Amino acid sequence: MAGPVDVAGDNPALAEQAIILARPMTPERQMANAIRALAIDAVEKAKSGHPGMPMGMADVATVLWTRFQKYDAADPRWPDRDRFVLSNGHGSMLLYALLHLTGQPGVSMEDIKNFRQLHSPCAGHPEFGEAPGIETTTGPLGQGLATAVGMALAERLLAARFGKSLVDHRTWVMAGDGCLMEGVSHEAIGLAGHLKLNKLTVLFDDNAITIDGSTGLSTTEDQLKRFTAAGWAVRKVDGHDPAQVAAAISFAMRSTKPTLIACKTIIGLGAPTKAGTAGVHGSPLGAAEAAGAKAALGWHEPPFTVPADIAERWHAAGTRGAATRRGWLKRLARHPQRQEFERVMAGKLPENFHEAVSALRADIAATKPKIATRQSSQKVLEALVPVVPELLGGSADLTGSNLTLVKGMGFVSPGSYAGRYVHYGIREHGMAAAMNGLALHGGVIPYGGTFFVFTDYMRPALRMAALMRQRAIHVLTHDSIGLGEDGPTHQPVEHLASLRAMPNVAVFRPADTMETAECWELALRKTDGPSLLVLTRQALPPLRTDVGENRCARGGYVLTEAEGPRVATLIASGSEVAIAMEARDILAADGHHIAVVSLPCWELFAQQDDAYRASVLGTAPRIGIEAACGFGWERWLGPDGAFIGLQGFGASAPAEVLYKEFGITSDAVVAAVKQRLD
Ligand SMILES: Cc1ncc(C[n+]2csc(CCOP(=O)(O)OP(=O)(O)O)c2C)c(N)n1
Ligand SMILES: [Mg+2]
Predict the structure, then answer these.
(1) pLDDT value, residue 214
(2) What ranges in 121-200 are assigned the alpha helix state H?
């Protein structure tokens, strides 16, 4: 189209913006503008990033961080601080600006200048561990909100255990249109509303813009009604009016329900032509628009410069909580549960943990139970839940199948948080994300159950646990065609391979009760990532009665050595180890010397030294046996190996029938070995 474009006419947000920017300048607005300016500068310099969200939510953030949020910049890890979660993580510059301006360690102006560059703590999206004030990694929309539900729940649980004098803080979430459109938000708000997590507040960046344009392109939902229906209190405010925002936050702090505050904002507030459009969502403003924005905001500083008086105000905000923290430290010092509080917050297991595991293993060795490994897991929990009080169990509505509940745990229920078991409901993604929040908060060790096949529904949160290296333990039962009649919708086939491919995750598939106890011990001791316990529905024979070393700790080991020079090595995990043992017996009767290797955890086995691995795997032909697809097995089997498993999906029939149908039998193993002997 030729001729000048009537920008104001094309973009109705600009008229609204003009009214907002005409409001009298206040110190508070200047503080918000410091956030905007840093976001503009950092994104310009990086030539990538998302200026729109920080510019839109700067006023809300300023109200929250200067008047309400409890924190002390001097100690960002203070256990009783409020948690702040930027669920719309693309707006990361908002968080980095806040951390820098309030004087928190780890985010210098130099770091902000290196936004999105290698080794800068100011990564594209906030990453847990990059600076102490970053509470969680966010970016996959909706998950931050679901993670925050776990943090808010952890607060309630610890307050019930240690009392209000040590644990009394809130959880604040910023979330955008995208977070609230994602399915996981449904699970998260449903759980939080039901459990009455009233110290959880969501500040919704209600700007009605996403990447493709107006939210009207894809949604007509009434978020206030949706949250109300889920048991939340709701408020709607002008997100550029600090008085309205403050009033709504005060309301939220008195509410007996979790609260949604829909903050009507203009994305990219200040940008002279692009404000209120998708054009400011995720790309630099460009020199002219950036200069225009700063002029419109009344900001006349060079890039990356905050005037002393504004910097001083922000610094003062960062020390607002100092006296509160000192008071808390005094209370902690004379608190009768001080040691226990410090232990659980540090994530250390109790001193008698080792003893409890030893006693359990002695019992297993003596009783030799022939049970499903899901039952073995329950046996482990019966022994360990009483000695590890920070263990918090739960299941996504499969308690009786996952066997995740043991006597005496008590239930977490709306308004009552002294129990140790959560009915997460049929919300796998929400459960796994909440478990991440529980782990990140600290003071509890979450474990949760579902069917192994439904890890598909929680995979995004498993991935986040892995990325953040959080100790979340998943009890995943019904682990193969061995579950039988429920059929291929419920039979995992590719799940072992796909989860083994995920970095930092320990996938454990124990073969009997002793291995289950060992794997549980390893999962509890693993503080640098999630553990998945992959367990059977069907009973398995006991294979181990030794009680010394935790043999699963090396990931794989020779369960039974050949009685002469090996002619073949059978390698299996979980339920198929027993099949390998049967095959070994048949072959032994024919005078063949066969070793059986149990391989419960590939990740740990891969970490062993070459010599150990070589000694376990041997030089004889190797046969891998697993009731799953063989993807990845070539790693252990080598070029001469054979894999006995599945080529495709399972079927609906009794387990024994399926094992025969798919040829996962000792006879098939014997045949494969004999073929290699000829
Ligand atoms: C699960 C997921 N899907 C897609 C994306 C890519 N993405 C990043 S931001 C965004 C739009 C978000 O819209 P909104 O939350 O309204 O953010 P705003 O533009 O208002 O800042 C999308 C689709 C993502 N980060 N996560
Ligand atoms: Mg939006």
Answers:
(1) 97
(2) 143-162, 177-181, 183-194
Check residue 172 and give its pLDDT: 99
Q: Give CA–CA dist 437/151, Å, rounded.
A: 5
Could you say which residues of the chain have pLDDT below 70? 1-9
Q: Residue with the nearest Cα to atom 13 of ligand 1?
A: 210
CA 488 to chain centroid, in Å, comes to 28
Supply the pLDDT for residue 484.
97
Decide whether any atom of ligand 1 lies within 6 Å of the 178 Cβ: yes
Tell how far the Cα of 44 is from the centroid of ligand 2, in angstroms. 21
Q: Is 193 helix (H, G, I), strand (E, B) or coil?
A: helix
Contacts of 36 (CB under 8 A, 6+ apart): 54, 55, 58, 269, 270, 293, 297, 299
pLDDT at 678: 74
Q: Ligand 1 atom 11: the closest Cα is on which residue?
A: 210
The atom number, within ligand 1, closest to the CA of 175 reads 15
> Where in the sequence numbering do the catalytic residues fall?
428
For residue 281 and ligand 1, the question of a CB distance below 6 A is answered with yes
* pLDDT, mean over the chain: 97
Which pLDDT belongs to residue 9? Answer: 61
What per-residue confidence (pLDDT) applies to 8?
46
State if residue 177 touches ligand 1 by the CB under 6 angstroms criterion: yes
CB of 205 sitting under 6 A from ligand 1: yes
- CA-based diameter of the chain, in Å? 94
User: Tokens 């947000």 identify what position?
Assistant: 13
* Contact assessment for residue 509 and residue 531, using Cβ atoms and an 8 Å cutoff: no
Buried b (16+ CB within 10 A) or exposed e, 256-274: ebbbbbbbbbbbbbbbbbb
Q: How many CB atoms lie within 10 A of CB 333?
A: 8
Q: Are 261 and 201 in contact (CB under 8 A)?
A: yes
As a whole number of angstroms, the distance between CA 350 and CA 104 comes to 32
From ligand 1's centre to the CA of 282, what distance in Å?
9
Supply the pLDDT for residue 7: 45
Structural contact between residues 344 and 527, judged by C-beta atoms closer than 8 angstroms: no
What pLDDT is recorded for position 363? Answer: 98
Q: How far apart are CA 92 and CA 127, in angstroms?
A: 9
The answer to whether the CB of 88 is under 6 A from ligand 1 is yes
CA gap 525, 508 in Å, rounded: 13
Whose structure tokens read 């002219």? 288
What pLDDT is stored for residue 4 in this prediction? 40
Instruction: Tell whether ligand 1 has an atom less than 6 A from the beta carbon of residue 52.
Output: yes
Tell me how far apart the alpha carbons of residues 245 and 67 are, in angstroms, rounded to a whole number.
11
pLDDT at position 623, please? 98
Pick the ligand that lies closest to the CA of residue 179.
1
Instruction: State the residue for tokens 């776990």.
Output: 150
Minimal CA–CA distance to 447: which of 426, 472, 468, 465? 472
Q: Is 211 in the pocket of ligand 1 (CB under 6 A)?
A: yes
State the Cα–Cα distance between residues 205 and 144, nearest whole angstrom: 14
Q: Is the CB of 59 under 6 A from ligand 1?
A: no
**Which atom of ligand 1 is nearest the CA belonging to 181?**
15
Q: Cα of 221 to ligand 1 centre, how many Å?
A: 17
Cα(210) to ligand 1 centroid in Å equals 6
Probe residue for ligand 1, chosen from 86, 210, 464 as the CB with the greatest number of ligand atoms within 8 Å: 210
Q: Give the nearest ligand 1 atom to 208 CA.
A: 16
Q: Which ligand is nearest to the CA of 176?
A: 1
Strand partners, 416: 413
Helices 338-346 and 143-162 meet at what angle, rounded to 10?
A: 160
